[in-house]
């Protein structure tokens, strides 16, 4: 009996959310301009990519929450005297953005991002931390009701390695589609 009551409440809640447009699911992809910050070593930025899924949960006329799951490639390069040394780090990232809507077109996005290292392509010997925590800020522009453009800056708050004082620093430009 409890299962039937729970299932009924879940169906009613989902249909109410769908009718009131409180939940929007989307996909997004874009370019990363990534580098390391906080280090004495002068590194050069690399261009990479990110892609993933987003959900926007409307909590009022001017506020919503947007959890996401993305794959993001970050890192940097360094010109040694004899060769270029690169570090490409592949993360699954979970940003949780608070969106403050400034009209129907633009929103200010702020929140934390938790990332887990999935892959690394590093030209030097170091122990890369598996977890990365960052603060994220940016803007979203709704081009149409279904298409959006986002610009973000991801500021790493944890060091990428126990052996280095470097943190991830990423500028992101995304294009997305809401279903």
Give your account of this protein's structure.
Residues 1-20 form the signal peptide. It comes from Flavobacterium luminosum. InterPro entries: Beta-barrel_OMP_2, OMP/PagP_B-barrel. By secondary structure, the chain is mainly beta. The chain has one domain (22-178): Porin. Helices cover 10% and strands 66% of the residues. It has one helix and eight strands; from the N terminus they run H-E-E-E-E-E-E-E-E. The protein has one helix spanning 2-19; strands at residues 23-37, 46-58, 63-79, 84-102, 106-122, 131-142, 147-159, 167-178. Strands 1-2-3-4-5-6-7-8 form an eight-stranded antiparallel β-barrel. A hairpin with a 7-residue loop joins strand 7 and strand 8 (167-178). 26% of the residues are buried. The model has no long low-confidence stretch (mean pLDDT 89).
């Amino acid at each position: 009996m409890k299962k039937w009551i729970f299932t009924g409440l879940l169906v009613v809640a989902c249909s109410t959310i769908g009718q009131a447009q409180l939940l929007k699911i989307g996909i997004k992809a874009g370019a990363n301009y990534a580098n390391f910050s906080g280090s004495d070593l002068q590194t050069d930025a690399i261009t990479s990519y990110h892609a993933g899924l987003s959900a926007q949960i409307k909590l009022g006329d001017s506020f919503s929450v947007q959890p996401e799951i993305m794959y993001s490639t970050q890192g940097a390069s360094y010109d040694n005297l004899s060769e270029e040394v690169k570090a490409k780090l592949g993360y699954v990232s979970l940003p949780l953005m608070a969106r403050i809507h400034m009209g129907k077109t633009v929103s200010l996005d702020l929140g934390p991002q938790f990332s887990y290292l999935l892959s690394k392509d590093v030209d030097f010997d170091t122990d890369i931390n598996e977890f990365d925590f960052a603060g994220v800020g940016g803007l979203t522009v709704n081009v149409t009701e279904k298409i959006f453009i986002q610009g973000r800056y991801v500021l790493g708050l944890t060091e990428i390695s126990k052996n280095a004082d470097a943190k991830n620093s990423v500028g992101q430009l995304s294009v997305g589609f809401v279903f």
